[in-house]
């Protein structure tokens, strides 16, 4: 089954880290990505630009309404994702709990509705 | 070969008695189906659902298979292997459901999965033994990804086959709301890919706690019906004991599972003694212990001894040991409050809660007097969880009364009475409160 691990974290948190801490954090994410690859479960992954770069679009009365900012204004925003393919929820939870994002934020585990 | 064929039996009937015998045949078929349901329901659901993670489909297919059995068995005779008969029919129903696009996703995959497992066993009419995957199903229902408050109801429905209406009444919920939440939980198991398996050794402890907690939760709901007049609740206590037996059979090396079974058997053994002949509430200290179920108590004690030899103490073993100490005291008339307080100390260390603290305070009062008991109770008095907990207010009232603080005692009884939902217990509390007033007036 495929699961999307969505990394929610406080956006300002990264900026508050020292350079050294940021390097450490980046290395941890690199290692995590490598582990996913080695295990053969990684299907895709990306870091997202901050929510200040987000644009929200919806169509109302046939007209697109374009708004600056994320869908939900909140301190915590999605900062990245991993798409993994594993046997079941327990395996997905086990990978989510190893994600550095689970340490400084929250990882949401969502099964993918495969078509 | 079948030894139990309704068909053969009915063909022997005289025409004039046919109607009567046929009815008897129906009843026997129904009894046979009910016996299989009782014994194998969870096993069949588990086998079907483990392959698809689709609990709802397994339940639907099985209930159709039972309906088919009630139509078929009185006519063709009760099959030699009723379990296998039901499973074969139910598997076909599941396959039909998927072919009929009941499920949108993975239809092909699911069909392949369903093909795996038992062969139809048509040659000898013998169906191989169905592997018992109930425990895997229990662990799926008690998965941390399932909302905590629906785990016990889910297990009762899926593994024990209780219907939503009875579960709802036992958990004081509307059947519609309970039904909705059960459906949602089953959807979650299917969609989120919750596995059907007993967890690995390293996480078994924590996950088993959840399972035992759900079983105990079901038992506690059943236990609150003191009179045993509410059928749904009484059944719930029995079902919880039955399910815990299943867990101890499948995981014989888990002392806490044995401890929980011992604890529930101890409580259940006293059910009849909790009411007098007029239906009035009788507290433990005044119960006629001739009414206790001695065999149940003996089994409980043996379980507890077996658990303690495994050398890993836990919450349920300690609670069972407390039950055992109370029984021993009543039977021998020898006060053992020191031992009781020690057990509560251990329980506080392992699984401390305001409820444990209140009970510990009562034991301290028996050992050292009302003053020290009240002082111990005072330590947790501010806990918001106690504000609506009837036994806390009753215990507090009791100790205040013993200490001579009658005004405060009366007020505490008042709150306890207001919180109690069982009429007989309410009357008993009112009597205690009234006795207090008499003492003040005299």
Could you describe the 3D structure shown?
- The complex is a heterodimer of chains A (115) and B (442).
- With 115 residues, chain A is an alpha+beta fold.
- Chain A has a single domain, classed as Dimeric alpha+beta barrel (Alpha-Beta Plaits).
- Chain A has helices at residues 13-16, 19-38, 89-98, 100-104, and strands spanning 2-10, 42-47, 55-60, 63-68, 76-85, 105-111.
- In chain A, the strands form two sheets. A four-stranded antiparallel β-sheet of chain A has the order 2-5-1-6.
- In chain A, a hairpin with a 2-residue loop joins β3 and β4 (63-68).
- The model of chain A has no long low-confidence stretch (mean pLDDT 94).
- Chain B has 442 residues and is an all-alpha fold.
- Chain B has four domains: 6-115, no CATH class; 134-195 and 204-250, no CATH class; 252-279 and 289-334, no CATH class; 355-442, Serine Threonine Protein Phosphatase 5, Tetratricopeptide repeat, CATH 1.25.40.
- Chain B contains 20 helices and no strands.
- Chain B has helices at 6-11, 18-52, 55-76, 82-99, 107-115, 134-141, 148-158, 164-170, 175-192, 201-223, 231-250, 255-269, 294-308, 315-332, 337-351, 354-368, 370-378, 390-402, 406-419, 423-441.
- In chain B, α11 (231-250) packs antiparallel against α12 (255-269) and α14 packs antiparallel against α15.
- Chain B is elongated.
- Classes of the chains: A alpha+beta (115), B mainly alpha (442).
